[in-house]
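Incident log, structure service

09:12 report received: a user says their structure output differs between two submissions of the same chain.
09:20 pulled the input from the user's history:
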Amino acid sequence: MLRYLTAGESHGPGLVTIVEGLPKGLHISPEDIAIQLSRRRHGYGRGGRMSVETDQLEILGGVRHGRTLGSPVAVLVRNAEWPKWSEIMSPLPSDAGNPVTRPRPGHADLAGMLKYDTDDARDILERASARETAARTVAGTLAGKLLEAVEVSVVSHVVAIGEVGSEGAPPGPEQLGAVDASPVRCLDTEAAQLMIEAIDRAQEVKDTLGGVVEVLAYGVPVGIGSHVQGDRRLDALLAAGLMSIPAIKGVEVGDGFEVARLLGSKSHDEILKADSALTRPTNRAGGVEGGMSNGEPIRVRAAMKPISTLMQPLRTVDMSTGEAAQAVRERSDVCAVPAAGVVAEHLVALTLAPEFQRKFGGDTVDDFVASVRAYRKRVDSRLID
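09:34 re-ran on a clean worker, output below:
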């Protein structure tokens, strides 16, 4: 079953991703991964680093002649800026100074400095940086390719930036290109323009903005996940995956927070029979009931806080002197919500793919696909007379 590890620091020589458990025969190319890494870099409000993060990648193992071997897949994404940081981030013993002693409110700096007994927050912030999500984007690309083999599509889009929200219908799989063409990854053109203006205003006052992204998974059959244990519930797994993204502070499945304010009669998705088939006129549950997919599109949202690295730093304490100070100022984006949507898309894929494998198995892609098709046929026979 698919599992993955990442290694590397934000300004280190590169990021390494190892994905184990992919079946043999899955089509993979460096171009597939490069496209997804490029999607992660873009979005209105990103900082100057995006122009130098070219994400030069190399597949080190697990793929031969464009197909997975069934062995672990290893991918290296090199850091184009490594020469500038080779002394400060050298793995060799060094007297290179420039410690970061003023922790940033909202970041991992202070908790990590206390946990690991250090006055240099760089030991913490390098790994806590959202740059690590590039490595998880690699893993998510591989998981997504496995889902594509069984006709499952994962799509993300932005539904809010700051106080500006979109009321547009969620995009389907065929609209992902149009979503990516939007500077803020929002199909609602009126809302998108207001989002751009909000980002511009935040930049003018040297501040940052957060927002909300939505991820939809189409084609997921009934029965992915399980009700039998808490750690097998699909909604719990999706929430954990999305909450693992830096700066994500809230997750809802379907209309989660909205239905909490409604009567039960207005909260659930009725089951109807039309033209000899079972249907649902609504999807307030977000495609998950009782910890299992119910056949409707999976729909989850993640709320991202404003970026904690500010051009006008907040108050803090210098941990080397104990004196009041301003937080350290590293290079920063104004808004990374559009990019967070892409990362969320890959975390949903990384959640669904192992659950598909848990249910359907298969050491080869052909065996996996055949098992999914047989199951779909059986379920359809119960849903359609």
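09:41 both user submissions now match this output. Likely a transient worker issue. Closing.
09:42 reviewer note: The domain at 3-383 is CATH 3.60.150.10 (Chorismate synthase, AroC fold). The chain has one domain: 3-383.
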